[in-house]
Structure prediction request, 974 residues.
Amino acid sequence: MGHLLAKLSIFYWSIGLISSAQHPYYYVLNHSQGLPSNEVYVLEQDDFGYLWIGCDAGLYRYNGCEFEELKQPERKGSISNVQIFNGETVWCQNFRGQIFRGHIFSDSLSVFFDAAPYCSRFPDFLSLTHDRILVLADTMLLEIDSSGILRSMGRRHFPNMEGNFSSIERIDGGGVMVCDYRGNTALVNKEGVQFMDSPEFMGEAENFRLFSNTMGCFLLGIIQGKRAIKHVLYRWEGTTFIPWVSPFFFEGHRVFSLGAKGRELFLNTSNGVYSCAPGGFLHKEKPWLEGKEISWYYRDREGMSYYAGLKEGIFVVPDTDLQELEMKGPDGLPLENISCIGKDLQGGLWFGGIAGSVYANYSPGRNEAERRFIKNGEGEVRKLLFYNEFLLVARETIQRVHLPTGKVEVLAHVHHVRDFLMHKDTLFYIGPDRQGYLTKLGKNKVLRAKGGLSLCFFQGRMYSLFTDGLFVWQRGQWEEVRFEGGSIFGQSMVATQEELYLATLGKGLLVYDGEVWDQCLPGLNKKSQELLHMATFGKGVFVADRKSVYLLGKGKEGWQTLRQFNIEQLSEVLDLEVWNGFLYLATVGKLYRVDLMGETQNLNPPKVRFKNVESKLKSHDSEALVELKHSDRSLRLYPDAAIHRSRGGFSYAYRLYGWEEEWHIVPGSQSEISFNELPYGKFEVQLKAINEGGVEGPIASLVLHVRQPFWTQWWFWGAVVFLLVGLFFLVFRYRLRRVQDRIQQKQSALTAELTALKAQLNPHFMFNTLNSLQDLILKRDIEQSNYYLAKFASLMRQVLQHSGQETVPLSFELSYLKDYLELEELRFGKEFQFVWFVDPMLEREDPDIPPLLVQPYLENAIKHGLLHAQGKKRLEIHFMDEGAEFQCIIRDNGIGREQSAQIRQRQHASFSGHANEKRIELLKSLYKKGFSLEIIDLMDKGMARGTEVRIRVSKRLVTEKNSYKNRRDEAKEV
Prediction:
C-alpha cells in the first residue's frame, strides 16, 4: 500500500505540480481567518492533535477552529524551532537565544535555558526528554537539564570542526548528528564522537544545515556563484552521507527547509515548493506556489498538508487528490466557467459553459479542450445528452447538434430546461413550469403543467421530481410517491439497472430497489440539510452537498461513507461526473478533479478533552473528580478537540453515564455544554468527538458527584426516626407513669376507704358479740360465758392479724368464719345449725380473698333472717371451685329480706348492710371483673322461705405486696 501511494504521489507531482494547468486545491490561513501573524516559521503537531505554529507573533496552538497563544515571560516575540517531545512537552526558542518549555495543555511557557551568553549566532537545540536538551552554542555542545548545564563538549571533543556549529538532528538507530557551517559532521552516541568523511563538493559549498524528516537525515549546502546560487543535497545512509541529487540551481532563491511525503522530498524555498526523488527533480520548470516564500512543510495525521509562508500565512491542502484545473483551449486562452459535464457515446468528456459554449476532445495531460459550438446570448448550458450522431443541448431552448456536420437546430422553445432524457425515440424534459415530451423529437406535448428539477426512467417507469414532490407516471396518470407518510422533495435523481437514487432536501439519500425505499445515512448532510447532485460509480454513488462530496456504497453493515472530500471552501457544485478514474466537479468559477485511486477519507479518531469545568460557585479546572454541593447542581463543560479537516464541521457527543444511556449530539462549534438541575448521586460525564466522516474518537470521562442535602440522607432520617421514637417513648412513659400514679392514688384511696369500712365493721361485730356475751352473763351461765370469751378472744386475734391486708388466704378466712359461727351457735343453742362445705380443690389452691368479705353476710343471715324465724334455724355455707373463680353460697331458712326490712324499720337501720354494699362497690371498682354479688329470695308457694347470697371471687385477684400471704412468704425468705 505504501509503495502504491509513493507511485501515485510521484505521478501526481509529475503531471500536476510542474504545470500551471493544475495544482492541488488549497485554502489559506492568514489574518482574515484569525492567524495572529502571516510570517510563519515552523509547524508541528502533538499527540492530541493540536497544530503548533511558531510565527513572528509567538507560539500558538491551533485546533482547527481557534488560535490560542502560549504566553512567554516578558513577551520575547518570535518563536521558531518548535519540537514536541513524547506528544506532551512543547519545546521552542526565540531569535534571542532563549529556549522555552511548556505542556500541550498549558497556557504559558517558561524559560528553560538562556543560550545568549554562550553563543553569538542563533543556536540550535534538540530535546532528549521532558527535562533535558542538547544545545549547540557556537563551538560547544551543551547538555542541560532543569538544574543547569550537565556537561559541555568543546573544540577538544570535535577537533575536525572548522567553524561554529549550525545544526543538530536525531539519527535513526540512536545518537545525534551535528554539523558546522562548513559541512563537517560528527555522530555523537554512547560510544563517543565519530567523524564523518567530507562529501563531494564540500570545498565549494557553505552554510550547511541538517534536516531530519520521515525519509531520514539530509545535509543541505549552498554554493554561492557570481550569477546564481547552486545547492548540494546529501542523505545519511547509516555510515556516511551520499549525494541525493546532482548540484542544482535555483536562480538565486534560498531553500528554507526540507519536508517529506512517502519517497518524495519537498524543498521549501523562497520561490515556492520543489519536489525531487532519488537521482533528480520531478519538475524543473516551475514550482508549486511559485513566488511564495515557503519556510516549512508538515503533514498531519488526518492527511492534510501545511505549507508555512513567510508573508501570506499557511497554505493548507486538505486533500492532495483534489486538484484545481486551469482549463485552456488550443489557443491557450482560459475556458469559460464550466456549468455541466457530459460523456459522449465513445467515452469522451465534454463540458458546457456558463456563457453557452460547448467544449469537446478534453485532454487530461494538457488540460485542454476544443471549443466546438458557440451560441452566445443563448444562456448557460444546463445539460448535454448524446444519442446516435446527435448532441442535445439544454440552454434557454432545447437544441440538437448534428455532430458530423455541426448543424444546430431548435427542437422546442422550452425556457430553462433543467433536465431531459431519451426513452426510445421520445425526448422527455422538465422545466420550471412544465413537464412534457417530444414524440420522435417532433410535436411538443405537456404531461403536467407543474415545474420540476429532475427526471429518470427506472424499471420501465418514468419518475419526475416536481416542486410539490416525487411522482411516477404509470397507467396513464401521475401517482405521488411518498416516504414515511410524507412528500419527497429533492434536487436530482440518477438510476442504474438495480437502484434509483434520490438526493433529497432534509432526508439524506433515498435508495429505491423497485419495492423498498432505504434511507441511506439520514444524518449525512446535517449542516446543509440538502443534497445537490449525484453521479453513479460502480456499485456506489457520489453525492454532493454544499460542504462535501461523499462516495457512498453498500457494505456488510449497510450503506456507509467510503470516501469524503471537503469542499466547504469551494464554490457551489453545479455538476459532477466520473471519467477515467477521476471525479470531475464543476463549480461556480472553477473545475476540480479528484483522483479516485487516492486515500482521502479521514480515519484518524479525534481525541477530546475537558478544557474547563465550571459550576455556579467555582471553577474546577478539569479535575478528575468534581464534587458539587446540593445547592450547586448546574455545570458547564468546555470541550476541546483538534480536528482540522472538518474546519469546525465535526460534532461532540456527550452523556451522563449512570443516569442515561443515550448520547446527545451537538455541533463542534458549540463551545459550551450545560447541565441544569443535575440529579443527586455519583455519575460519569462522558464526552467524545466525531469527525466529519463519522469516525468516533476515544471517550474522555469526568467523575461527577452531586452531594445530596443532609435532609435527604439516610442517616438524617434515621436520626429523625430515632428522636421521634425516643420522644414518643418518653411521652408514653410519662403519660403511663401519670396514669399509673392516678391508678395508684385511686387504689390507695380505695384501700384506705376499705380499711375504714373494715375499721367500722370490726367495732360493729364486736358490739353484737358483746351483746351476746351480756345475755350469757345475765343468765349466769358461767361455763358458757368463759367458753364464749375464749372464742371471742381467738376471733379478735385473727381480726388483728388480718387488719390492714387487702387480701388473705382463703384458709385464714375459713378459720375466722368457723370461730365466728361457733360463737353464734353457742349463742343460739340447739335451735341454730350451720352446714359447712369446702371444695377440696380450693383447699389445695388456697386462693386469696379480701378479709371479712363473707362474715357480714353470715351475720345478716343470722341476725335479720334466722333470729326472727320460728323453729329450726339452718345456715348453709358452701365454697365451690369453678375454674378461674370460686363461689361462696350462703343459704338460710329465715324470714326473708322483705320481713327483715320491715322489722329493721321498726327498730333501727342496719349499719352492716350499707357498709357491705359500699364495700362490694369499692371492691368491684378496685378489682374490675374480680367480684360479683347476687342475692336471691327463696320462695315456696309465694311465701318467703329464706335468702341465698352468691359471691363470686376471681382466683386472679391483684395481690399487693402488703397482703398477708406475701408478708408471710417474705418472712420465710428472711
Notes: The longest strand covers residues 943-954.
